[in-house]
Amino acid sequence: MNDTLAPVTGRHALRRFFGFFQGLADDFVHGGVFVKLSLLVMGAGYFRHRQIIKGFLLTVFQTVILFFAITFALPYLRDFSTLGTVTFASVFNPVTMKNEINDYDHSFQILLYGLVSIVVLAAALVIWLRNIRKARTLEILSREGKRPPTFLEELKSLRNERFYITLLSLPCLGVVLFTVIPLILMILVAFTNYDQQNMPPAALFTWVGLKNFQALLTNNITSSFGYAFFKVLSWTLIWAFTATFTCYIGGILLSMFINNAKTHFKRVWRTLFIVAIAVPQFVTLLLVRNFFATQGIVNTICAQIGLTDFLKNVGMVPAALNYIPFLTHPAWAKVMIILINIWIGVPYLMLIATGVLMNIPKEMYESAKIDGAGPYKTFRHVTMPYMLFVTGPYLVTSVVQNINNFNVIYLLTQDVYRTTDQALANVNAKEIDLLVTWLFRLTQDYYNYKMASVIGIMVFIVCSVFTLLAFNTVLKRNKEDKFQL
Questions:
Q1: Is the pLDDT of residue 57 over 80?
Q2: Hey, where are the domains in the chain?
Q3: What is the pTM of this model?
Q4: Where would I find the H helices in 305-383?
Q5: How many C-beta atoms lie closer than 10 Å to residue 416's C-beta?
Q6: Alpha-carbon Rg for the chain in angstroms
Q7: Is the omega angle on the peptide bond into residue 148 within 30 degrees of 0, that is, cis?
């Protein structure tokens, strides 16, 4: 297979990485004086071959990077290993009769600006090293009597055959600034003791290694994070799979019902369910939360018709309560959250299923009918395999989305549900929390950034492992030739 068409595997990327440095060493050793001088002055190779503009721009770039490293990066990188040693202090000056603040260290600034400095200097180093290889290329072209492209010709190429570089440069820079750096910063916080007791600028935080991960995965007398993590993780996975497949199967069945030849007023049915999508989700969830509140309309109706007393008699509602704890009891709340999510999610899946069902070849149904298959067997052997073939990737991503489904859990239970498990309460978790809602509460309400970062990493690991396994399974089982007649 041609190397240019081969997929970039881990082994291939590693080979390219070491190949770059091997080529760099060869260029430096076998290159001329100006190639070697390019290690000290970036524009030296270009000046030698009369490419003045390129040489000048690279020299300016080198000057800016050196100025950045000395004036900005070096102070933060010097304190990066400790994240600061000088604490905040306000001292009264009897001369000026004012409180004066000392020159204190800010741990978060050191962490953030130190990370930015590392990224910038790493990018500059790559450009610096590639410049040596470019200087060697110019030397070889000159030796062979070939003219290298001028600065204007390279600018033209960036508008023509290499326009993809021009087009992608700004988005790539945005990804680095607003995605990569914040993500790395969050990961680094997980290895510190950054919390409410160590909050800059009043206090410093420092590196603690793997202690936060150990605290999350173990349970002891002083901390119940381990107990809470595995309990919240189990409910998160149960919720993700239950919410996904109830909406998925419900959407397919609803679509089949509406599109059935015996169903009348199809447009009316579709419109009624589409309204559930048109209304903003947070409005729907807040209204439903009020409906199922302790003194809400649903509890009022249930009490009037005797349903509340009946459930108390059969033991499904505690005897001390005169209402059904729809959103205040762990078991009731979990069931209600799943049922409410079905109401919100099924109409959207109905639209997707309608589009897929309309594209199933009629010949497949006719063949199944000729073979004597009834409605159930047709659904099992024709409809569902085709639906899974088309919507398999969506199903996988839907599970991941539900693992991180913040809106449904938070909006239905915030300021309503009170945990009765003291071990969970000690670490600010609840029985109905997902990992993402627990993470949110730790940061916004309790400023426990270190444990929130650890939980964020664990959410990423869970989602990535599931996604890799699920997509491999879906791609292996989805045989396109099965559905080509």
A1: yes
A2: 31-209, 217-292+327-483
A3: 0.83
A4: 307-313, 330-357, 362-370, 375-378
A5: 17
A6: 31
A7: no
